[in-house]
UniProtKB/TrEMBL annotation:
Domain Exocyst complex subunit Exo70 C-terminal: 352-607
Protein name: Exocyst subunit Exo70 family protein
Species whose genome carries this gene: Linum tenue
Ranges where the record places region Disordered: 241-274
Alphabetical UniProt keywords: Exocytosis, Protein transport, Transport
GO cellular component term of the entry, any: exocyst
UniProt feature coiled coil, ranges: none
Cross-referenced InterPro entries: Cullin_repeat-like_dom_sf, Exo70, Exo70_C
Length: 607
């Protein structure tokens, strides 16, 4: 519009030649506009000019109407002559302006067609420009993809260099290289469009296989170098202070005959302390090595090498545990080996075995379980499998001694050590269930439970054998003065110790419960033993030819029985009725002894 206002002013006299020149200039200026935006139309550029011309044409028409009105007014006023000249000049000017306007409109109309042709001519250029822009974008994308691909090649070369150096220099960098190689394999596996992609993938897989093979060797070497047998002193340090051996031996159980109060009290105190005391955790291998073993195990499992990992761990750790137990004093014994032992030796070995079981389950195997949990964290089935296989043979070696004891010949003196063995198995039951948890360890749990039941069965049978042995004791030892017989003191001491094992016996009877109360069962068995003793004493009393000694013998032995029961826990179990009844028996034999003895005196006086 500014252009038209300068070059197409209606007040100015313009020739058609000048109008064409200025229109040509306008065309040249418009043709020089470049680059053109997409969808641009030159008609839009001329629209303001058209509107300006249209407005001026309308103004001319309005001026004509005003002129007519002025002329009419002038005629009425009488100034027709002067106004007529002015009106003629104005009319002439308006006609010229109208002519110019019409010419401009005609010129601008021609511009429409010229601009349409120009726009058509520019369209191929626009299309080429768009194609160039798209090509530029595609080139950018290709360059970025190439950068990613080259970066993967760089990662592959770096990982290959690290893997070829091996894990000895820097294990953590070696593991990172394997992880980078795995990512590299996943990248080329998902990008199948590269011509050399398959070759790169094959090379990466081959390199990964070599890396994992070196990783297996590193895992084995690291595990073997850190796995050392545990010395007994280290195991003893994990025991509570009250349970640590003071004389350098793993256990110290009592006097030779197995019935001394020192032996039994020691066992009871040890069992009581074991339940309340806390055991220190055993460190199987250096803590700084465990995370490295865990990382190695993770990479081996991810590569599908679970079986190789299982075999390596089992072979290494199983031998270490076995050697640790042997250093402690554990040995595999058969029934024949047990049968050949003197009772004093066997009793000492049983006492040691009780101590070994506690140390093995609460310290050694518990430590191995923690180690497995740390190394194979995240792989539950593999963790339980490794633990079961590296401890299975060692548990079997420990239990073999108990199995041999249950199969050996029964004897009354074995009852208390059998009860001690049964007690330790009951004490360790919850610990065994916790340490040997999981489906894979079910066989180990069943074997320990089986030994517990066999010990209970053997103890109960030995109990029955003792009752029968008391009743059928046929010793010819005669007590010349009618005092207490050795069998009586032996049986009474035996019964006293039985009551020290009262809770264990109740549990044992509960194993074979038939519906009655365990307390009444223990009382019934005790009464049967006392009755068997009394029956045997009656038989032995008949060895005396002097009736006075017969009654004196029975009086002394039954009195010893009553006095011992009254001073022990057996009184609560046998009851006051038993005590009163047998006191009357003692009094009867005393009266008979007086009558028979004084009868001889009177008979001599009468003679």
């Amino acid at each position: 519009s500014s252009f038209l206002s300068r070059h197409f002013d209606p007040e100015e006299k313009k020739t058609p030649q000048k109008v064409r020149e200025r229109a040509t200039k306008l065309s040249i200026i418009i043709s020089k506009i470049h680059p053109l935006p997409r969808g641009f139309c030159y008609q839009r550029l001329l629209l303001p000019a058209k509107l300006t011309v249209t407005r001026r044409h309308s103004a001319v028409t309005t001026s004509k109407a005003y002129l007519r009105q002025t002329m009419a007014v002038a005629a009425m006023a009488g100034g027709v002559d002067s106004l007529s000249d002015r009106a003629a000049k104005m009319k002439e000017a308006l006609l010229k302006s109208q002519t110019i306007t019409e010419n401009v409109v005609s010129i601008l109309g021609s511009f429409d067609s010229r601009l349409s042709v120009l726009e058509t001519a520019m369209r191929p250029t626009q299309i080429r420009t768009h194609a160039i822009r798209k090509a530029h974008e595609n080139i950018d994308k290709t360059l970025k993809a190439a950068e990613v691909l080259l970066a993967e090649f760089d990662i592959s070369r770096q990982a290959e260099a690290q893997i070829l150096r091996g894990p000895h220099e820097d294990l953590e960098s070696y593991l990172e290289a394997i992880e980078q190689l795995r990512k590299n394999i996943r990248f080329f596996s998902s990008s199948k469009g590269f011509k050399s992609g398959d070759a790169v993938l094959d090379n990466a897989n081959t390199l990964l296989a070599k890396a994992i093979s070196k990783l297996e060797d590193e895992f084995k070497q690291l595990l073997v170098s850190c796995s050392k047998p545990v010395e007994p002193d280290r195991l003893f340090e994990c025991l509570p202070e009250s349970m640590r051996p003071s004389a350098g031996s793993p256990a110290n159980h009592g006097d030779p005959n197995g019935l001394g109060p020192h032996s039994h009290n020691h066992s009871e105190q040890q069992n009581s302390n074991a339940e309340a005391a806390s055991f220190k955790p055993l460190v199987m291998i250096p803590p700084r090595t465990v995370p490295l073993l865990h990382d190695l195990a993770v990479h081996m499992v991810q590569s599908g090498h679970q079986q190789q990992l299982l075999k390596t761990y089992r072979d290494t750790r199983s031998s270490v545990l076995e050697e640790s137990l042997r250093k402690l004093g554990v040995e595999r014994l058969s029934k024949e080996d047990v049968q050949k032992m003197q009772w004093e030796v066997l009793e000492a070995k049983i006492g040691n075995w009780i101590h070994f079981m506690r140390i093995a389950v609460k310290i050694l195997f518990a430590g191995e379980r923690r180690l497995c949990d740390q190394i194979f964290d995240g792989f539950d089935s593999l963790r339980d499998q490794c633990f079961a296989e590296c401890t299975g043979n060692n548990v079997s070696m420990l239990l073999s001694f108990g199995e041999a004891i249950t199969k050996s010949k029964r004897s009354p003196e074995k009852l208390f050590v059998l009860l001690d063995m049964y007690e330790i198995m009951r004490e360790l039951h919850s610990e065994i269930e916790s340490v040997f948890s999981g489906k894979v360890c079910a066989e180990i749990r069943e074997s320990t439970l089986g030994l517990t039941k066999k010990l209970a069965q053997t103890a109960q049978e030995t109990f029955g054998d003792f009752e029968e042995a008391v009743e059928k004791d046929a010793t010819k030892t005669a007590v010349l003065d009618g005092t207490v017989h050795p069998l009586t003191s032996y049986v009474i001491n035996y019964v006293k110790f039985l009551f020290d094992y009262q809770s264990t016996l109740n549990q044992l009877f509960r194993e074979f419960e038939t519906g009655g109360e365990t307390v009444s069962q223990l009382a019934t068995v005790t009464m049967r033993i006392m009755q068997a003793l009394q029956t045997n004493l009656d038989g032995k009393s008949k060895q005396y030819k002097d009736q006075a000694l017969t009654h004196l013998f029975l009086m002394n032995n039954i009195h010893y029985m009553v006095r011992s029961v009254r001073r022990s826990e057996a009184k609560d179990l046998l009851g006051d009725d038993w005590v009163q009844r047998h006191r009357r028996v003692v009094q009867q034999h005393a009266n008979q002894y007086k009558r028979t003895g004084w009868g001889k005196v009177l008979f001599s006086l009468l003679d």
